[in-house]
Specification:
Length: 234
């Protein structure tokens, strides 16, 4: 393990079998992420960004190499241990994935109910996280009553509710206009300042070049650049 890294990929490859033979989604990736990093994973669509996140969540297994989370090899986690890992790693998606028949409050509370949290803890934590993301006035709204930016802030609140060490944001601004895009980016920066490691996968050049944070660039499954205060250059 690299000293003090929360996440480490060691010589990781992921090869899919297709009708046309083998397709390498990732090839010999080495990557260490430090606690409290804000890391952008840049690259064009199909470059391997989403595969990298799926491997980290244990949704896919590497064909070769090892992936460590706080020094533990993810491949050695049992099926029963996987849900615990995924509570330590919050996820935010492009399409929000909110439950349409539940209010904003109920969407966040449901994530706690699913892991058996007591009602008193839910009633205490949900309002706090909704205040953090700026949705205190929208607790009783249903997803169809929210703007795209508000839906994404609700999904960020849901990702935060288990106090994860790491948040993976997979193209979180892909469905948003410019104003809401920067609201979400500023919120991710705020969460990072509070101590959560952020991994942002995006092909939005403007976001990456304005963040002035660490950037790794993936192209055709290979990490071709890893820079502090980096820019998206292909």
């Amino acid at each position: 393990m690299v000293h003090d890294s929360v996440i480490e990929f060691k010589n990781v490859s992921k090869i899919y079998q297709t009708n046309n033979g083998e397709c390498a989604a990732l090839t010999k990736v080495d990557l260490a992420v430090r606690p409290k990093d804000f890391l952008s994973v840049a690259g064009p669509s199909g470059s391997g960004k989403s595969t990298l996140l799926k491997l980290l969540l244990g949704e896919e297994r590497p064909t070769d190499g090892q992936i460590f989370f706080n020094g533990q090899d993810i491949a050695l986690f049992s099926t029963s241990e996987m849900p615990h890992l995924r509570r330590r790693i919050g996820t935010i998606f492009q399409d929000f994935k909110l439950l349409s028949n539940k209010t904003v409050y109920e969407n966040i509370a449901f994530a706690m109910e699913m892991v058996g949290k007591p009602t008193k803890e839910i009633e205490q934590d949900v309002p706090q996280v909704l205040e953090l993301v700026g949705l205190s006035d929208k607790t009783e709204y249903f997803p169809h009553q929210l703007s795209g930016g508000e839906k994404q802030r609700a999904s960020i609140a849901r990702a935060l509710i288990h106090r994860p060490e790491v948040i993976l944001a997979d193209e979180p601004t892909g469905n948003l206009d410019l104003l809401n895009t920067w609201d979400v980016v500023r919120l991710l920066l705020k969460i990072n300042e509070l101590g959560t490691t952020i991994i942002l996968a995006t092909h939005d050049r403007e976001i990456i070049n304005n963040l002035n944070r660490r950037v790794i660039t993936i192209n055709r499954g290979k990490v071709i650049r890893d820079e502090e205060n980096g820019r998206y250059v292909l």
